[in-house]
Amino acid sequence: MKFGGTSVGDVERLLDVARRIVAAREAGNRVVGVLSAMGHQTDELLDLAQKISLRPKPRALDMLVSVGERITCALAEMAIEDLGHHAISLTGSQAGIVTDTVHGKAKIVEIRARRIHEALDEDRIVLVAGFQGVSTEYEVTTLGRGGSDMTAVALAAALGAEACEIYTDVDGVFTADPRVVPQARKLHAVTYEEMLEMAASGAKVLQLRSVEFARNHGVKVHVRSTFSGEEGTWIAEEDERMLEKAMISGVTHTREESLYTVGGVDAGRLFGALADASVNVDTIIRTGPDIVFSAPDEDHASIASTLDALEGVTWSARDDLGKVSVIGAGMKSHPGIAARTFATLADLGIESPVVTTSPIKIACYVARNEVERAVSALHHVFELDTPVAERSHA
Ligand code: ADP
Ligand code: ASP
Ligand code: MG
Q: Is 123 helix (H, G, I), strand (E, B) or coil?
C-alpha cells in the first residue's frame, strides 16, 4: 500500500492512513506500506537547497530530500503502535533497496528483502520510506520525482505481493487530468502500454519508470483514492474487453518539456553525451542536418552544459511549447484518429509545429498557453466525457 504526498499531507491525514493500514492488517493481510513525504515537503527541501547553493552537490541533495519520506514513516510507526499493532519503519537502505550510483534518478538494481520478510514473520506492519535507496557505493540515492511509486512497485515484485495499491488524491486514472478537464472520467482498467504512454506524456498519477517496472515484472497495480473505499483503476495486460469500447483511453498533456534544435554534431555523439549525463530524451526528429529532440525541463541545466561541452555544436531551445497527446490501444485498429486530432486543433486555430506518433499515441506540440484548450477539445471530440469512455471490464 503506497500513499502519496497529499494523502499524508497533515497529522489528521497521516493518522487516517495509519488506521487504513491497520484495517488491511486486521483483514488478514501482511502489509508493507510505502509512504511519501508529507505534502510539498520534497519541493520545500529542494527550494531550501537552492537558497544555499546554485548547483547543489547531487550527493548532498539526496541526503537532504530523502529525509521527507523518513519523517512520514517514523510518524506512521508511532501512530500504528498506538493503534495496538507492531510496526517498523525502514529507510530505503534498511529495506534493502540497492540502486546504481546516479544521484537524483537512481535505478534499482537489487532488492535484498530479508529484513522485510523477517519483520513480516514477526507479525509487524512494515513501513518503507519511498523514493530512496542505497547505492552499490553505500551512498543514499533517490529514484527521481514521483519515485515512491517505484519503491512500491519494486517491493511488490520482490515480495510477490498480490497487488500494488497506489493510494492517491484522485479516484484513479482518468481520461484526462481531472484538474484540467472536470468532465474527465475514471477508467476502470488501462493496459500497461497505455499507462506507459500516459505517464510518459504527462499523466503524473504514476511515475513512468514504475509503470515500466510493473509491466516487466507483471505487477498488478491498482490506483485508487486514499479518501474513499471505491475501486480505482487497474493497470494490467491487454484484454479484448478493454478494446471493444472506446478507441481512445485518454488525453494527456505536459507543460514541462522543452524542444532543442542542434546542429554540427552526429547523432551518435550527441545522444551518447546526453545519455552519459543521464538525460531522459523523449522525442527525436531528424529530417535534415539538424537534430531536434525534447526532454524534461528539469534536465535543462545538464542538457545546456552537455551541449556547450560538445565541440562545434550550435544549439537553441524552445520552452514556449507544451505537448498534448491522444492515447489509446484501440488506435491500432481504427484509422482516422490522426485526421480527427489535426482537424480539431485546426478548428481551434492552434498550430502544431512538431507531431510524433507511436502505434497507440499521437503527440502534438502546441503553444504552452493553448495546452488546456487543446486538451479539452480533444477530450470532447473523442467522446471521453461520456460513459463509453470508462471501459468496464469486470
Ligand atoms: P501522489 O502524491 O499521490 O503521488 P501525484 O500528484 O503524484 O500524487 O499524482 C496524482 C495527480 O496526478 C492528481 O492529483 C492529478 O491532478 C494528476 N493527474 C494528471 N493526469 C491524470 C490522469 N490522467 N488521471 C488521474 N490523475 C492525473
Ligand atoms: N516525495 C517524492 C516527490 O515528491 C517522491 C514521491 O512522492 O513519490 O517526488
Ligand atoms: Mg506521485
A: coil
- What tens digit of pLDDT does each residue of 8-42 get? 999 999 999 999 999 999 999 999 999 999 999 99
Tally Cβ neighbours within 10 Å of residue 107: 16
Instruction: State if residue 255 touches ligand 1 by the CB under 6 angstroms criterion.
Output: no
Point out the ligand nearest to the CA of residue 62. Answer: 2
Q: Is 33 in the pocket of ligand 1 (CB under 6 A)?
A: no
Strands (E) in the chain, as ranges, are 2-3, 32-35, 87-90, 97-99, 108-111, 125-129, 132-135, 140-142, 164-168, 189-191, 221-225, 233-236, 250-254, 257-263, 284-285, 291-296, 314-318, 321-327, 354-358, 361-367
Query: Residue 268 corresponds to which amino acid?
Result: G
Kind of pairing between the strands at 132-135 and 321-327: unpaired
176 lines ligand 1 (CB under 6 A): yes
Cell of 9: 499531507
| 393 pLDDT above the threshold of 60 | no
Q: Are strands 189-191 and 314-318 parallel, antiparallel or unpaired?
A: unpaired
The Cα-based distances of 103 to 108, 148, 321 in angstroms read: 12, 15, 28
pLDDT value for 335? 81
The closest of 283, 382, 392 to 339, measured between CA atoms, is 382
Integer Cα distance of 203 and 382 in angstroms: 18
Q: What distance in angstroms lies between residue 337's CA and the mean position of ligand 3's atoms?
A: 30
What average pLDDT is seen over the chain?
94
Q: By C-alpha distance, which of 91, 183, 241, 203 is closest to 377?
A: 183
- What DSSP character marks residue 36? P
Sign of CA pseudo-dihedral 379, 385, 387, 391: positive
Atom of ligand 1 nearest to the CA of 179: 16
Nearest atom within ligand 1 for CA of residue 207: 7
CA distance 337 to 343: 10
Strand partners, 214: none
